[in-house]
What does this fold into?
Amino acid sequence: MPEEKLIGPVEVVRDEDGYWYHPGIPEFDEDHEAYKAWLDGQLLKVVGWHMESDLEAHPYWDDDACHCLGWEPETPPAYDWFLLGIFDTEDGPYVQWARREVQP
It folds into this structure.
């Protein structure tokens, strides 16, 4: 079995609605357990939060818009975090950051 290539930072070009996925993430078809197993295999620690944690008001809530334009989530306070995605969920837009866990 070939060794899986570890992903890292790439250029982020958000789509017309403000969303983006890291191109190195395989398709999991909403299989959260498979995604978690992949993250473990990638040695990635992940943090994330919803847009409502950063913005008090946005057309997403006020006008039933389907975009997250204008939301610029800040990188967590460490130098080695990289963006995994900005995507829509049942609870609204969500950002997810990752960093590689150093193995002892």
Observations:
- The first helix runs from residue 32 to 41.
